């Protein structure tokens, strides 16, 4: 809805805070809102490029929109546009989009970084991929692509066929005498991109003062697989769904698929059968357990060193979950099981066997969790290593847009499954886990307890599925063969992925493929906070903090 | 033997009559004593060769095979099982493959320190075994300062570590080397001080005397007719535990595997080493674990003592060393690593104070009894 | 080289790729299996043949893997090392984090332009004889991401690969089979005729002074190592 300047008089929608709220927003923004550009999920206000900081800080301080969840940049024929998707941590259904258009010739817009720290990386990404420049940004460099890259790949005039040069710069040796500058005794250390503690291909530029970390700067983009471009090239109906599996690839596939399923179902207005929703809920929570198990195992790897018993035990449990998921979906990791409007197929036959297998796993789970508590969280050395290290204060976490177990470990009570309900979560009985420790230990405990909550959800889903009448087992809604949402419809929707708020923004251009497909990755925002967590601590704490953030590079870099 | 006559001898310490040390046995058995000093020298070399190979064979079994098997059994796996019974053939395959690999010497290393370091690391541990009485007559030398000698040569390893770390021209190696030194300095003192308490009990630094002192009966379990020997681990369990902890730090095993710290420092001081050098460094590590085990066995677990005839001594001794090795692998599988500052804190503020307390207490008790 | 004219490999001549192969492995039997002694003798005396066989047996039965995770496949790779599948049964389950101590590199995932030079560097740091297992579709052709502007279409563009394991991601069983197949080949003294396209690391100053190089001249030092990335160039 690119236009629509009129102020929707007395609209009778009962959406949370729609009319009164919109009126309040309008009066708050006043003259600065030069037009309306409503999105399906939120009212949108168009503002001038040099009002950004002003408007965003007003929205945060006056109206309570304290969560800048995503920054989307895109290019139209006649203009560039940056969209700031804002929410409240207290109520994520209360959203507002701030649209900042700039001209093609001079795509300069004010940076939101001074207001929200999280905008730092988001705007760097927008600059890197689309080419919008942000004034007042502290460090506007490329983030995902090599610094010598030519052109901005998601802009209109980018030619993919042009050759590029990639550098391999080396850093100086500590033994060389000229390395020390007169002022300090620090040493520069590259951690990664190939390093056992980075869980993939992350590069952490570290400045050390002895064993103390003086400065940290994560350098990402070593796994930038152009997921957004891939999704923009696929058709809504079938070709996009396989890609989400590969964003957060630690068996969290169904959670990611749900992000896409939710956004496309809202965009095309598809009602999903209740039975399919229950299967989705169950599958997604199984994935969450698998994902948290891996997080626990790799965190243990970071704190224990080498492939130790704890690591192996988590993999033992993951094997069981992967077997169950394989029975359900047909694949161990890249499930591609959700369909637009439902799931691919019903539970595997014989159903009793599936129920029995899953229940057996759930019955054994408490004993296993107990074992982990004995082995890991109860261990005193582990506690001295993790308590009060990597501290992330709740206010800082919010500023960085942290979500998921990272935010909940800092006491930010934010879980989209409860706050912005989807699927079958609303009808089930479970709790959101938060912990106040704000340190590495709290994050680990938070994940462990979430595993137990997920088990509760699965248990209830199994009961429901078992008793479901045989002739009402609809796994898919009636969805047209080709989906062509109206041109210019824009929507941003998020689900609670394994690592936090996994959101997708889609703008349709009237064809059967998205005009712009933007992924809001939780890991991307969470990783930004690493700097805040580890400066002034020791190298082992840096490694442990990185582990406790539980990043997946596939999702950070997309 | 030679000590009784006026000819100069390599074994002036032997207490008349019966041969005690392995070189003496060899001299006697082969009749080398007719050749005077040269013959004794040859016998010493032969004895050292036998002992050295015995120790190397043990590390050879431990490194590529036993370590994997033990870790695997802690983690519900099988590990190597395709070459020979229980996969024992992997020892040959691993050793030959590692030795036959290309030895990369990076451009910016500091030679010859880079080349010497692996030899220093492996060699220092080998030297320590010279004074360890292993039972069944396998004992190379028995100087009066035996225990001090062992601690001294084992301490040389830290020079090797810092050489390796510094000379590699790699920042991770450098960090690993520096950690190794900080750690060894911090834990050497409690180690030696705790060792002193044993010396107080035994009244001598000589290894054979320390072992003999442990042969007495501590008490007899009534009704069982079973004599509990006066092993210092039983006489003073507190010192034993202190010594064990300090020893793990000294050899750099979990929870104190700071110098390597695989998840943090790639492989610490050994990051840049490949092929033969890597084998030497790796071997050195295992030799140090075994040397640590040997010291523990000798001064706390009665050395080669055990049920059965004295000829079985070497068997018991080997078992005790492997027991300590097994413990290191157990800890490696199950215990997290402490942080470097915590490690130093435990060393200086905890172990050091406790070890002096232990020494004082022991001195008081020994004084009272005496 | 501009993308308007794809390198001739694509349609008419195989010379460039053959040249690269010869440059890497030399003529005749793969150099990785050729001892210096044999070279000195000029022929294959019985004892050396036996010795070579023994060395192949040794290398085929024991290998240290590089602890190297890239993308999705690395999760399945970890599963292959872990409890159920236990790659160590075949003497191949010791992951070493330092490339200096590794024999086999499993490439588990998509290679993108920024990571390409780094992977090449890690490969170069491994001592000979070294082997590479390409895991998953991405290392074969770029897999599902082949169309991406930033994706290298297969790891073989950068380093030589001995065994390809297809799948997205391959099951642990498949990787296990791939490693066993590699061991079998090593034991038989076989080595694949590996085709590597010249995605080489070069010093910036040595590059042909085309438009792009001139444009970047102010940003990159003469002796910095660079790698050309050309999406259109590979098939």
Quick take:
The complex is a heterotrimer of chains A (558), B (370) and C (235). Chain A is α+β, with helices and mostly antiparallel strands and 558 residues long.
Please explain how this structure is put together.
The complex is a heterotrimer of chains A (about 550), B (about 375) and C (about 240). Chain A is about 40% helix and about 15% strand. Chain A is α+β, with helices and mostly antiparallel strands. In chain A, helix 5 packs antiparallel against helix 6, helix 7 runs antiparallel to helix 8 and helix 13 packs parallel to helix 16. In chain A, a hairpin with an 8-residue loop joins strand 4 and strand 5. Chain A has 2 domains: about 120 residues, 2-Layer Sandwich (Beta Polymerase, domain 2), CATH 3.30.460; about 325 residues, Cytochrome-c3 Hydrogenase, chain B, CATH 1.10.645. Chain A is built from 17 helices and 16 strands. Chain B has about 375 residues and is mostly helical. Chain B is about 65% helix and about 0% strand. Chain B is built from 13 helices and 2 strands, in the order H-H-H-H-H-H-H-E-E-H-H-H-H-H-H. Chain B has a two-stranded antiparallel ribbon with strand order 1-2. The radius of gyration of chain B is 22 Å and the shape is globular. In chain B, about 55% of the residues are buried. The N terminus of chain B is likely disordered. Chain C is of the alpha/beta class and about 240 residues long. Chain C folds into 2 domains: about 190 residues, 3-Layer(aba) Sandwich (Rossmann fold); about 35 residues, no CATH class. Chain C contains 8 helices and 7 strands. Chain C has a 3-stranded parallel β-sheet with strand order 3-4-5. In chain C, helix 3 packs antiparallel against helix 7. Chain C is globular. The two termini of chain C are about 15 Å apart. Chains A and C meet through strand 8, helix 4 and helix 7 of A and helix 4, helix 5, helix 8 and strand 7 of C. Strand 8 of chain A pairs antiparallel with strand 7 of chain C.
Second-tier CATH architecture of the largest domain in chain A: Orthogonal Bundle
Query: What strand line-up does the widest sheet of chain C have?
Result: 3-4-5
Strand content of chain C: 5-15%
Mean pLDDT of chain C: 77
The main sheet of chain A comes to: 5 strands, mixed
Number of domains of chain C: 2
Q: Find the biggest chain interface.
A: A-C, 58 and 64 residues
Kindly estimate the percentage of residues of chain A that lie in beta strands according to DSSP.
15-25%
């Amino acid at each position: 809805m690119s236009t629509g300047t009129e102020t929707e008089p007395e609209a009778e929608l009962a959406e949370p805070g729609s009319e009164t709220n919109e009126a309040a927003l309008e009066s708050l923004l006043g003259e600065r809102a030069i037009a309306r550009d409503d999105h399906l999920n939120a009212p949108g206000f168009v503002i001038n490029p040099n009002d950004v900081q002003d408007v965003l800080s007003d929205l945060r301080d006056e109206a309570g929109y304290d969560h800048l969840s995503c920054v989307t940049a895109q290019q139209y024929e006649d203009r560039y546009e940056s969209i700031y998707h804002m929410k409240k941590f207290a109520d994520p259904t209360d959203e507002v989009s701030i649209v900042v258009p700039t001209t093609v010739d001079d795509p300069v817009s004010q940076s939101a970084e001074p207001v929200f720290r999280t905008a730092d990386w988001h705007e760097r990404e927008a600059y890197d991929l689309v080419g919008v420049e942000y004034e007042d940004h502290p460090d506007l460099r490329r983030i995902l692509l090599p610094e010598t890259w030519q052109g901005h790949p998601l802009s209109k005039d980018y030619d993919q066929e042009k050759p590029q040069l990639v550098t391999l710069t080396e850093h100086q040796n500590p033994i060389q005498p000229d390395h020390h500058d007169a002022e300090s005794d620090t040493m520069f250390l590259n951690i990664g991109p190939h390093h056992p503690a980075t869980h993939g291909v992350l590069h952490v530029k570290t400045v050390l003062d002895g064993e103390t970390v003086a400065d940290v700067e994560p350098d990402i983009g070593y796994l930038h697989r152009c997921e957004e471009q891939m999704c923009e090239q696929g058709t809504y109906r079938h070709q996009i769904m396989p890609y989400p599996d590969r964003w957060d690839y630690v068996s969290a596939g169904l959670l990611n698929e749900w992000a896409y399923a939710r956004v496309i179902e809202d965009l095309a207005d598809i009602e999903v059968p209740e039975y399919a929703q229950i299967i989705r809920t169950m599958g997604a929570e199984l994935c969450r357990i698998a994902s948290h198990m891996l997080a626990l195992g790799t965190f243990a790897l970071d704190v224990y060193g080498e492939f130790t018993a704890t690591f192996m035990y988590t993999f033992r449990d993951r094997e069981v979950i992967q077997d169950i998921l394989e029975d359900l979906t047909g694949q161990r990791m890249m499930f591609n099981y959700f369909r637009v409007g439902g799931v691919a197929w019903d539970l595997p036959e014989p159903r009793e066997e599936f129920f029995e297998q899953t229940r057996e796993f759930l019955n054994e789970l408490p004993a296993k969790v107990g074992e982990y508590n004995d082995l890991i969280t109860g261990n005193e050395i582990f506690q001295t290593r993790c308590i009060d290290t990597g501290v992330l204060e709740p206010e800082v976490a919010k500023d960085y847009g942290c979500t998921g177990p990272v935010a909940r470990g800092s006491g930010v009570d934010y879980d989209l499954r409860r706050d912005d309900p989807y699927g079958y979560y609303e009808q089930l009985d479970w709790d959101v886990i938060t912990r106040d420790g704000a340190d590495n230990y709290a994050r680990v405990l938070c994940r462990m307890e979430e595993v137990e909550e997920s088990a509760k959800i699965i248990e209830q889903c199994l009961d429901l599925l078992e008793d479901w009448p045989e002739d009402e087992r609809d796994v898919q809604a009636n969805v047209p063969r080709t989906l062509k949402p109206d041109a210019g419809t824009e929507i941003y929707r998020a689900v609670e992925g394994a690592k936090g708020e996994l959101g997708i923004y889609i703008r349709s251009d009237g064809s059967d493929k998205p005009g712009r497909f933007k992924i809001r990755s939780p890991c991307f925002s969470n990783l930004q906070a690493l700097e805040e967590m580890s400066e002034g601590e020791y190298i082992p704490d840096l490694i442990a903090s990185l582990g406790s953030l539980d990043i997946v590079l596939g999702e950070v870099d997309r | 033997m030679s000590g009784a006559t006026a000819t100069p001898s390599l074994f002036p310490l032997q207490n008349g009559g019966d041969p005690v040390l392995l070189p003496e046995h060899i001299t006697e058995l082969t009749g080398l004593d007719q050749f005077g000093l040269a013959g004794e020298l040859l016998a010493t070399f032969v004895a050292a060769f036998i002992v050295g190979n015995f120790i190397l064979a043990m590390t050879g079994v431990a490194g590529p095979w036993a370590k994997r098997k033990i870790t695997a059994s802690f983690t519900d796996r099988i590990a190597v099982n395709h070459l020979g019974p229980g996969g024992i053939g992997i020892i040959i395959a691993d050793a030959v493959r590692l030795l036959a690999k290309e030895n990369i010497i990076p451009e910016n290393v500091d030679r010859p320190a880079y080349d010497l370091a692996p030899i220093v690391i492996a060699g220092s541990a080998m030297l320590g075994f010279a004074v360890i009485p292993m039972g069944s007559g396998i004992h190379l030398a028995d100087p009066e300062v035996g225990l001090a000698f062992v601690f001294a040569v084992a301490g040389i390893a830290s020079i090797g570590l810092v050489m390796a770390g510094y000379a590699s021209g790699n920042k991770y190696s450098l960090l690993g080397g520096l950690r190794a030194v900080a750690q060894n300095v911090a834990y050497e003192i409690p180690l030696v001080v705790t060792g002193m308490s044993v010396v107080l009990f035994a009244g001598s630094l000589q290894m054979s005397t320390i072992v003999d002192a442990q042969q007495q009966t501590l008490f007899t379990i009534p009704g069982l007719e079973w004599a509990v020997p006066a092993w210092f681990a039983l006489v003073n369990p507190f010192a034993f535990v202190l010594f064990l902890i300090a020893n793990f730090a000294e050899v750099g095993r979990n929870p104190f595997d700071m110098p390597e710290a695989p998840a943090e420092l790639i492989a610490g001081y050994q990051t840049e080493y490949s092929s033969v050098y890597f084998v030497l460094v790796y071997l050195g590590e295992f030799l140090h674990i075994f040397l640590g085990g040997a010291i523990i066995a000798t001064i706390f677990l009665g050395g080669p003592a055990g049920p059965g005839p004295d000829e079985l001594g070497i068997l018991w001794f080997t078992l005790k060393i492997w027991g300590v090795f097994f413990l290191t692998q157990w800890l490696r599988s199950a215990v997290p690593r402490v942080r470097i500052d915590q490690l130093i804190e435990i060393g200086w503020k905890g172990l050091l104070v406790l070890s002096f307390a232990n020494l004082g207490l022991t001195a008081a008790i020994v004084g009272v009894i005496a | 080289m501009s993308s308007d004219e794809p390198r001739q490999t694509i349609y008419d001549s195989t010379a460039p790729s053959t040249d690269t192969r010869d440059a890497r492995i030399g003529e005749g039997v793969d150099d990785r299996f050729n001892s210096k002694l044999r070279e000195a003798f000029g022929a294959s005396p019985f004892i050396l043949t036996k010795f070579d066989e023994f060395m192949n047996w040794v290398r085929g039965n024991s290998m240290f893997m590089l602890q190297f995770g890239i993308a999705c496949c690395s999760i399945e790779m970890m599963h292959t090392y872990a409890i159920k599948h236990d790659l160590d049964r075949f003497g191949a389950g010791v992951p070493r984090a330092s490339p200096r101590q590794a024999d086999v590199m499993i490439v588990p995932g998509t290679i993108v332009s920024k990571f390409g030079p780094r992977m090449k560097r890690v490969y170069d740091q491994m001592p000979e004889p070294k082997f590479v297992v390409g895991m998953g579709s991405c290392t074969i052709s770029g897999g599902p991401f082949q169309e991406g502007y930033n994706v290298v279409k297969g790891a073989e563009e950068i380093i030589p690969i001995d065994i390809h394991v297809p799948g997205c991601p391959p099951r642990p069983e498949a990787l296990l089979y791939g490693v066993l197949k590699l061991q079998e080949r090593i034991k038989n003294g076989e080595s694949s005729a590996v085709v590597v396209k010249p995605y080489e690391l070069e010093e910036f100053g040595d590059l042909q002074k085309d438009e792009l190089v001139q444009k970047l001249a102010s940003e990159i030092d003469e002796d910095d190592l660079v790698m050309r990335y050309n999406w259109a160039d590979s098939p």
